[in-house]
Amino acid sequence: MRLRRLDLIRYGKFTDRTIEFGPKPESGPDLHIVFGLNEAGKSTALSGYLDVMFQG
Asked: In angstroms, rounded to a whole number, what is the distance separating the alpha carbons of residues 24 and 22?
């Protein structure tokens, strides 16, 4: 499964924000690397992603 967009409705400073991953490339690798300073929100974004993947 490929994630194209992640809507963060209730996630701290990302409330009502969207992370766009863009279209799948025609060729080459299809990989996204998330990086940033401490307290930038990487773990918050991961929490949103995991909620999508494992919601009951």
From this structure: 7
User: pLDDT digits over 8-50, tens only?
Assistant: 888 888 889 999 988 888 998 888 888 999 988 889 888 888 9
Count other Cβ atoms within 10 Å, centred on residue 15.
Answer: 10
- Which pairing describes strands 5-8 and 17-20: parallel, antiparallel, or unpaired? antiparallel
Task: Specify which residues 17 forms β-bridges with.
Answer: 8
Model's pTM, two decimal places?
0.71
Sequence-distant (≥ 6) Cβ neighbours of residue 9 within 8 angstroms: 15, 16
- For residue 48, how many other CB atoms are within 10 A of its CB? 21
